[in-house]
Amino acid sequence: MQINSFEAYQQAYKHSVENPEEFWAGIADNFLWKKKWDKVLSWNFSEPNVKWFEGAKLNITENCLDRHLAEHGDTPAIIWEPNDPEKDPITLTYKILHVQVCRFANVLKKNGVKKGDRICIYMPMVPELAVAVLACARIGAVHSVIFGGFSAQSIADRINDAKCKLVITADGSFRGNKQIQLKEVIDDALIGCPTVEKVIVLTNTRTPVSMIKGRDIWWEDEVKLVDANCPAEEMDAEDMLFILYTSGSTGKPKGVVHTVGGYMVYAGYTFTNVFNYQPDEVFFCTADIGWITGHSYIVYGPLSQGATTLMFEGIPTYPDASRMWQIVEKHKVNILYTAPTAIRSLMSFGTEPIQGHDLSSLRVLGSVGEPINEEAWHWYNEEIGKDNCPIVDTWWQTENGGIMISPIAFVTPTKPSYATLPLPGIQPVLVDEAGNEIEGNGVSGNLCIKFPWPGILRTTYGDHERCKLTYFSTYKDMYFTGDGCMRDQDGYYKITGRVDDVINVSGHRIGTAEVENAINMHSGVVESAVVGFPHDVKGQGIYAFVIFGNSQHDEDLNKRDILQTVTRVIGAIAKPDKILFVSGLPKTRSGKIMRRILRKIAEGETSNLGDTSTLLDPAVVEEIVEGAAKLR
Ligand code: 6R9
């Protein structure tokens, strides 16, 4: 199923459009099924209702583990690099990982977990996180992994939305020279989570934790009580595999639902093709498993292909900015997949941290999470790839399950800051505001996809209407991505960024409404408006315009209080970079905040604010412009 020439790509693409069912059946044949499908695809985008490989039976962990045992049992499945470079790395071969997953799956069973139950996982980037994820999949439980940077309140919201029965966590996590008390955060969260019956706690940092009788149990104790034989649950292709929460333009994060069969096929297919993975190579994706990139390209994609996946507990700048290059050298990494924000951050340290590190094992470089600017692209290409490694700039989303628009390494000619061409099976269209398809090249518009692919989300958990409204209602019979896009003269795609009220901070999606709600919870705040602004390292930063009730307030102190409130309500990742206190917000006569104007002010482009005549009170704009100039 690996594409090895541009002609082969074109052929595959043509096949996938002309006969999608035959095309994807051919791809799916490369996986292990307990029973093959009755029908490859049935779909409509109006409800929406999408089903892939209906009638097929499988277990994704048999594809990720069992099927590799006979010939590749001793191949490293996971290489784990700890936060502390002095500590020894850990290698789990496929055989060992299989045993650990089966054992922990039995722990879950012993604690009452059944097929279809939702399990919340809030863990550090340790091998047991991958074990926990796969153990859920082994017995057909649905995992909902929550990134370690979210607050107790955010965790509680997610646990309650999915009605999770059990939580898997650790005492704490190491991040650079910091320790985060994960169990403490979970304890706070669980005060408001009546559905949770058990908490399994892994010892990691050995910090003191409060273990509640009857509810909290230790990972280490539990695994001793079970055996390592756990037959894989037989799953329907359309059974739920996981829920992953993501931010949109309105309200609370929604639980994106992926199902077993289609997701597996799509993650595996895109992994092997985009990165041109070769047997025995080491693949290093720097994402956290708390995000979709970690799900698809640390766990399921690589393991389904029998690959060796490197998992890193720490951060790229600890103990210093040479850490990534040390890891590449130490583990002879062949494929490195990271985010533009990491590249820009490392770039700011110059080339000194790279010197003396042997990066010659690198063959392919990948980028994901946000648009990569040309400067970062060239630095990545020259300083890291030594002008000798293709860069795959991979565009995709949580809702997509896997990479959608991207070069295929050694196949697609690359172009700085372009995601280039759609993968086989992906039919992108650009549409104008009225929903008309914009044909031809050298055009820009909103990016939609007009035909399903196996990794497409099936619903948003517990609220199908929301899925329909968010993705399938803006434009008739199309999946709307929320991204703006340009198609150049060669038909190459360049993603230009979100066109909705989502800010992309260091590759993390944050909804402006969510941040506003958090800020508004502070007792002194009357109203607020949040927009994104260009940030040198993060891509986008968060700019908050805040009306405070008492004009005599201590601005510094109140800013800190607001930051603390946001950290409590959402988590540190949503803290505004800038807070400007204002006496009013630019509103239309109907009371809508004109974000367009605030965005321009945040960008520093105040010379051309456009038409302000429809504003209720044009004078506030002058005040905000003046205040923003001082804040810069
Ligand atoms: C995989 C992931 C999705 C949003 C997406 C877009 C942005 C991701 C990109 C990119 C330009 C790329 N995005 N990859 N923009 N070029 N190569 O990041 O999923 O967290 O759901 O974010 O990220 O705006 O809509 P997710």
Automatic annotation (TrEMBL):
Record-annotated Acetyl-coenzyme A synthetase N-terminal domain positions: 9-64
Annotated keywords: Acetylation, ATP-binding, Ligase, Nucleotide-binding
One of the GO BP terms on file: acetyl-CoA biosynthetic process from acetate
Gene3D superfamilies assigned: 3.30.300.30, N-terminal domain of ligase-like
Domain AMP-binding enzyme C-terminal residues, every copy: 514-592
Residues of the AMP-dependent synthetase/ligase domain: 66-452
EC number(s) recorded for this UniProt protein: 6.2.1.1
Gene Ontology molecular-function annotations: acetate-CoA ligase activity; AMP binding; ATP binding
InterPro entries membership: Ac_CoA_lig (IPR011904), ACAS_N (IPR032387), AMP-bd_C (IPR025110), AMP-bd_C_sf (IPR045851), AMP-binding_CS (IPR020845), AMP-dep_synth/lig_dom (IPR000873), ANL_N_sf (IPR042099)
UniProt family annotation: Belongs to the ATP-dependent AMP-binding enzyme family.
Protein name, UniProt field: Acetate--CoA ligase
Organism: Pedobacter quisquiliarum
Gene giving rise to this polypeptide: acsA
